[in-house]
Amino acid sequence: MADNDGIALISDARRAAGGADGETYDSEFWARLAHAPDSRSFAASWLDIQCRAFEGVIRGAVILRASEAAAFAPVAIWPEGIEGSPKLASVVERALQQRRVVVDGAKRNARRQDPIFIAHPILVDDELYGAAALEVEGRSEAAVHELVQRLGWGIGWLEALARRKTFTSKARLVTVLELISTSLNHERFQAAATAVATELATTFGCERVSIGFLKGRHIQVRALSHSAAFAKKTNLIRAIEAAMDEAADQMATVIYPARKDGPFQVTRAHAELLQQHGTGAVCTIPLTAGANLLGALVLELPTGSEFDARTVELCEHAALLVGPVLDVKRKEDRWLAQKAVDSMATYLRRLVGPRHVALKLWTLLVAATIAFLSIVDGDFMITADASLEGTVQRAITAAMQGYVVEARARAGDIVREGSLLAAMDDL
pLDDT-derived band of residue 33, with 50, 70 and 90 as boundaries? Predict the structure, then answer.
């Protein structure tokens, strides 16, 4: 947990604690929580301050789980090095099972020296995140009730921690919809991809988020979080692209350092990226549309952080929906000549590759038709009106004006030299 994340968490915790009640804690409280490097340190600081603020605390514990599939485990014990209490563990187990506050030992006629065990569950949107437990010296029922109430106020800080580290089903849906909305709010591809990468980095506290798309046989980085422009030939970009290619070759999400329960994967490029550029954990998710590879998404956490199963699952869902949207914008931003070349290349790949039988048949039919019309000769009969005229046309003119009395030849007749063609009226 970076310092700025701790400060943001303190802001959330102040609101969760109920306003004025949260202001009663001194500046040391806020300073210790704000500079906690991770969740364990945050829980340990919170427990130490709570136990010192309450009178008569014998021991305390904070029980959390790292992910939805993990088991509950103690992350902070007060005072450090003290042995565990079976009675306190039993109370914690009951609080986790019943999902409510459990108090054991507070009886009307109990002796004042008998210890009292209190366990308070940590619930986030009806999902159980853990519990905080105290073993205190005996006291009256009214004092126990006040202590439980004050502990409930303090639980608000652990709930704020849980909200920043986990996502409920509703929160996951909202996050994915926000990412889709971010990608659709920008008309141009570069602006949309940069906005999505920045949104992912902000949501999950990543040091850097990179988005790349396939070009030829390799993936090229097209957008970085919080960066409108970047040098494409730097060692960092090359290392990120190598990690993208590594995940794309396996067509699977690659996490480094790998989880203990995760499958065996090739992570050489991811290890080099982490070692050379000082990040805490790397997660690469291929961007796909059906069975087609579009690109890859790389998320890098700061030192001391790691990816949990819930975060990876959410990022995979986001990549599945956002990837095709960004790919459409990327294709629309190409030059017209580039679109024509890419369209022809896609057509040729489908023509010579497997599947697409209908395309191959239509192409063969068109080619055969063109070849037939180009080679074969034939006669064509055309029906139309026509007139027949001689090649040489001659005209005979009368020597004087008058009327024709008799015409002995018509157009097209064969006549001999000296034959009478027509007789004129000499009246």
Answer: low
